[in-house]
């Protein structure tokens, strides 16, 4: 048996693990009752498609990562494509109560998008364990929220625990309502970062890092205080940022090739070394 489509089931039997050659499993019209998948599902090493879009799963089996042939997995609020893209939308997931779904997906390679991340609590965000996803290349954190401003003040703590792995190459931070950046957004924590984008971070006042001492030989400590690989920076719709002199200092971003700055009304200018070499483009 290579294809199974289950209709109107409340749970899968433990015997599902006996179907060793199963390639496609669809669980349709399961309603709200199916909350978990049996651990024996992880014996299906040839499973390529798992479709459970109507199921409000609360977690995945501990050995879910052993489904090495899995190419596509869909559950309510979560879409997973192996080697490509994984999207988790908190608005569809009971305000973050099922963020633990992505906890076990540490073998994922590609681009992870978290939508409406501002709906998470600090504890919920910690359950995602993003730091353990060592094969993650790109991360989009859309911190939008439908909540009140009072609750949104917690967004700084939420972002703090959404720390990505050191392997990350591209980061997009979008609709972030905090006034400061998380402590993990430092060169030593993201040594492979090549692309960095801030979009719609209206309250963000500055992008800065600890000043490098003049007495330090930068060639001897390349991993500390310097984004050695960062080549592409976009800052769009960050209306309260007034200066980028420290962040875009040539000592901090020696590999920078492209910078785009738009709709930043408080920003008077970009660093002179960027405009003089044709590397920067900006508008107030």
Automatic annotation (TrEMBL):
Membrane spanning residue stretches: none
Source lineage: Eukaryota, Viridiplantae, Streptophyta, Embryophyta, Tracheophyta
Matching SUPFAM superfamilies: L domain-like
Pfam families assigned: LRR_R13L1-DRL21
Protein name as it appears in the record: R13L1/DRL21-like LRR repeat region domain-containing protein
Gene3D superfamilies in the record: Ribonuclease Inhibitor
Natural source organism: Triticum aestivum
Superkingdom assignment: Eukaryota
Occurrences of domain R13L1/DRL21-like LRR repeat region (ranges): 100-210
